[in-house]
Sequence to fold (156 residues):
Amino acid sequence: MMNYSKGQIIALVALRIVIGWHFLYEGLTKIFQPEWTSGAYLMDSRGFLSGFFIWIASHPSVLSAADFLNEWGLTLVGLSLILGILTRLSTIAGMLLLLFYYLSHPAWIGYEYIFPLESAYFVVDKNIIEMVALLVIWFFPTSRIIGMERLVRRRN
Fold:
């Protein structure tokens, strides 16, 4: 059993749920907008992997698969974090998605994008911050205390 204070548990569970909500919301908004595609976003890629992201956007079948994985990956990671089930897997999947977003649009000096950034960033942007927050969730698996994983473990 983990020996966290009540305040630590509340803070960690709240972090897990709000990140889950963000992922779920982003996924569902894409799913429920049939015209949504990541094509323009990927074509606007900069950085050392921009060729890879532009290649994805340039091939309709690959882009379709990437869009599907993005929509449902976001949605399932979000549900997993909110419900507190399979959180270890979902934190890794979430960090991987965020890493791809960052590598596609790194917050580096001299890079300008068609889609305006929400703020002025220098190296660390919201994707990096959320990746680190998911890393915290990985190391402090509160879903075993408050979440569906607790119920599953209780049955075994």
